Structure formats: C-alpha cells, structure tokens
Amino acid sequence: MPGKFVVFEGGEGVGKSTQSRLLAEAMRARGLEVVTTREPGGTPGAEAIRAMLLDKDGLAKDGLGWGARAEALLFAAARADHVERLIRPALARGAWVVCDRYLDSSRAYQGGGSGLEDADILTLHRIGSAGLLPDCTVLLTLDPAEAARRVEKRDAGALDRIGGRAADYHARVAAAFRRFAEAEPERFAVIAANGAPEAVHVRVLAAVDSLCA
Ligand code: TYD
C-alpha cells in the first residue's frame, strides 16, 4: 500500500517543524516508516536552490534579487527535484512522508503575497511535479503577534529574505492559506497552534487520523 503524504503549512513561527517532528515520532511509534523533510529543500539539489532563495546577504541585499515570477519558478524547480528523488520513491515503498511546507506555500507566498495567479502556480506544479498533492495538509494558525514573538526568540532578528518581508505581505499570505483551507476541506485541517507543543500535537494527531484514515 502506498504511504501517506502529510504537509504542515502556515506562516513563520507557528511551530511547523516542531509539529512535524512530533507527528513523525507518533507515527513511528505505530511501527510505520516515516520520512521527515522540508521545503524549499529536502534533497541536495533542492537545498542548493534553497540556499540561493533564502540567503539574506546574497543578491537581494544589493537589490538584485529575483522577481516574483523567477522566484516561483525556483521554488517549483526545487519541488520538482524533491518530489522526484525523495517524496515519490518514499510513498511508493509505503513510507509516510511528513513535510514542512509544500505547494500551498508557493500559492500563499508567491500567489497571495506577491500577486501571481493561483492557476499559474498550479501549472508550474503540474509541469514540475505532475501535480502531486498531499493526502492531508495541516494548516497551523496563530495570532500574528504571538508568531512574531516566537520567531524573534528563534531567529534573534536574523530573518531570511522572505521571512523578513512586511507585515501586510504576511497578512496576505495568512489570508490566502485560510482561503485554500476553506476551498478544500477534504484535504485541509486547520489547527490552532497556540498553547504547549504537546497540546497542539494532540489536535494534529486527531486531524491526521481523520483525514488520512
Ligand atoms: P523556512 O526557514 O523554512 O521558514 P519557516 O521556518 O517559516 O518555515 O523558510 C522558508 C521560507 O520560504 C518561508 O519564508 C516561506 C518561503 N516559501 C515560499 O515563499 N514559497 C514556497 O513555495 C516555500 C516552500 C517557502
């Protein structure tokens, strides 16, 4: 039986990587093989693209960063490598894949945040990754002020070049994520990310069990 593909989505500082880890541990305790990964990245080729995209001291510092279209193509290229070399083979051998961010981040950031058409981002995904979608997408939501406090604590002011964009950009990203979840309730679970990580994990596990059963 093919494995399940679970993705965590949401803005910066909502706890996606902590929740990915806790979910993977819970699934492993059930005897399943679980591959944890992240985007952009997850394979050497995609990590190389990540380093270019998120380098806050790189081209962007000199005003030479990519525009939204080139950026969307780079995210799609990183994803194509990740899907082909890591995600599809893992699913094919029956493993679960738990991924921190995926296509809906491109739709929310390059689409909602930067203004590209959703249909265009989906076309890039069809070309790059044959349109592979998660079985279940967990959208973690958190009050922006609390998320900002968590990011400050984690990164101590060293935001990457996308994380460091203005508050109105991040508000558009958050609104886009909410729209996607409303449009596809069979694929999305919207989980409040406030409270202790263990408490959030209990909510996540219940949602994954019901969506991925
Ligand atoms: P990361 O350090 O993983 O951020 P976070 O801890 O918030 O998940 O950096 C990923 C950044 O890249 C984040 O700001 C979101 C952005 N991003 C896009 O703009 N488009 C995408 O398709 C993906 C996967 C990420």
Describe the structure.
The protein is α/β, with parallel strands linked by helices and 213 residues long. It has a single domain (5-211), classed as P-loop containing nucleotide triphosphate hydrolases (Rossmann fold), CATH 3.40.50.300. It is 55% helix and 12% strand. Strands 2-3-1-4-5 form a five-stranded parallel β-sheet, sandwiched between helices. The longest helix is centred in the middle third of the chain and has 25 residues, at 68-92. It is globular, with a radius of gyration of 16 Å. The structure holds thymidine-5'-diphosphate (TYD). Thymidine-5'-diphosphate binds at residues 12, 16, 39-40, 54, 75, 101, 105-106, 109-110, 160, 162-163.
Topology:
Layout: E1 5-9, H1 16-29, E2 34-38, H2 44-54, H3 68-92, E3 96-100, H4 103-113, H5 118-129, E4 136-141, H6 144-155, H7 167-183, E5 188-192, H8 197-211
Parallel strand pairs: 1-3, 1-4, 2-3, 4-5
The structure holds thymidine-5'-diphosphate.
